Amino acid sequence: MDLEINNHVESNFSSFKGEALAIIWAISHF
Q1: 1-30: per-residue pLDDT in tens?
Q2: How many angstroms from the chain centroid is the CA of residue 4?
Q3: Which domain of life is it from (predicted)?
Q4: Spatial separation of the C-alpha atoms in residues 23 and 27, rounded to whole Å
Q5: What one-character DSSP code corresponds to residue 1?
Q6: pTM assigned to the model
Q7: Dihedral, CA of residue 16, residue 22, residue 25 and residue 30, to nearest 10
Q8: What is the pLDDT of residue 16?
Q9: What pLDDT is stored for residue 1 in this prediction?
Q10: Which ranges of 1-30 would DSSP assign to H, the alpha helix?
């Protein structure tokens, strides 16, 4: 159960990080 929760948190964090990088890239190339 702990492993499943950890994987869920990691996937949420990586997707959030990807969105943040996309926003930063869009702003810097605006």
Answers
A1: 577 877 777 888 888 999 999 999 999 987
A2: 17
A3: Eukaryota
A4: 6
A5: -
A6: 0.54
A7: -130
A8: 92
A9: 59
A10: 2-28
Q: Tokens 């948190």 correspond to what residue?
A: 9
For residue 14, what are its two tokens? 């990586």
Q: Which two tokens stand for residue 8?
A: 């869920």
Of 8, 29, 9, 11, nearest in space to 21 by CA: 29
b/e 8-18 (16+ beta carbons within 10 angstroms → b): eeeeeeeeeee
* Residue 19, token pair as written in the block: 């969105």
Nearest to 2 by CA among 10, 13, 15, 17: 10
Residue tagged 């990080």 (tokens):
17
| Tokens representing residue 29 in the block | 């190339």
Query: What would the two tokens of residue 20 be?
Result: 């943040």
